[in-house]
């Protein structure tokens, strides 16, 4: 099981000479884009990763720099599609592991993304971002006494006018992390999800939070820099991701030696690991 997501490395420089007049800075780094974090518009470099989640050690299998389109750029400026990013990440990950399922957040809810994952014989699960068309189904759920979840079976996923595959839409009570309303909608390409299987699918999807926790650790490993050279930014993020992987592998080996559960809290903390690495580097000169 793997999770795919985007993360941002902040860049604290305003992109506009005059936003009201729509005059951008000509020297603004092209790989910096805008994003919303906790309701606040920010700017930063975007990176995508694919990470092992679930019952295994959460190792990063692939990294991709992402060029997104921003408001201050001309409309014809090239940008990476989410489907292309997912394709590259899956190709890289499948060199190392046999994947079964991919978990994504609502930002990846696109037909081409789902078709790419399905074409590889993999399962996917993700939230549906905007589900206005599903309000009638949600109201029907709420009208049935004692029923708090439902499934819409075999919904076609169309690509270029053809049906690529069919998907199951799951209607579940929302949590604060799922949606703003009382219900959240998820989509999966499992063959046929019975209502009594919804809880299992949702429990599996909750493993996606491993990648969110991973990003917090990677951010703490990032070297500080003010460079706008994208090569420096990409190297720093890759270096931090490698440190994260080394920490996870070190903790895994220690747990094996101590006969601890793999998914138990770390024996070697991230801070202890960084301290040990720093001491080794200083000794090496």
UniProtKB/TrEMBL annotation:
Which Pfam families does its entry note?
Answer: DDE_Tnp_1
GO biological process per UniProt: DNA transposition
| Transposase IS4-like domain segment(s) | 84-246
InterPro entries per the record? Transposase_11
Q: Which GO terms describe its molecular function?
A: DNA binding; transposase activity
Q: Know the name of this protein?
A: DDE family transposase
Q: What is the lineage of its organism?
A: Archaea, Methanobacteriati, Methanobacteriota, Stenosarchaea group, Halobacteria
């Amino acid at each position: 099981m793997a999770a795919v997501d985007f993360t941002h490395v902040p860049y604290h420089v305003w992109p506009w000479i005059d936003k009201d007049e729509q005059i951008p800075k000509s020297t603004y780094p092209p790989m910096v884009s805008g994003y919303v974090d906790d309701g606040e518009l920010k700017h930063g470099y975007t990176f995508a990763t694919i990470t092992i989640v679930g019952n295994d050690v959460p190792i990063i299998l692939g990294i991709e720099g992402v060029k997104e389109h921003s408001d201050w750029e001309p409309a014809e400026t090239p940008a990476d599609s989410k489907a292309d990013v997912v394709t590259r990440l899956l190709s890289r990950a499948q060199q190392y592991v046999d994947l079964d399922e991919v978990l994504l957040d609502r930002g990846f809810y696109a037909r081409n993304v789902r078709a790419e994952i399905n074409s590889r014989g993999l399962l996917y699960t993700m939230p549906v971002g905007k589900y206005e068309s599903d309000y009638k189904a949600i109201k029907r759920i709420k009208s049935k006494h004692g029923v708090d979840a439902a499934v819409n079976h075999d919904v076609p996923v169309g690509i270029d006018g053809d049906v690529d595959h069919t998907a199951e839409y799951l209607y579940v009570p929302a949590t604060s992390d799922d949606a703003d309303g009382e219900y959240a909608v998820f989509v999966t390409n499992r063959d046929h999800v019975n209502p009594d299987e919804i809880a299992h699918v949702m429990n599996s999807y909750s493993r996606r939070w491993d990648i969110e926790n991973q990003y917090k650790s990677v951010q703490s490993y990032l070297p500080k820099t003010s460079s706008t050279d994208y090569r420096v930014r990409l190297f720093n993020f890759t270096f931090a991701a490698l440190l994260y992987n080394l920490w996870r592998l070190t903790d895994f080996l220690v747990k094996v030696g101590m006969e601890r559960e793999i998914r138990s809290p770390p024996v070697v903390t991230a801070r202890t690991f960084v301290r040990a690495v720093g001491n080794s580097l200083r000794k090496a000169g």
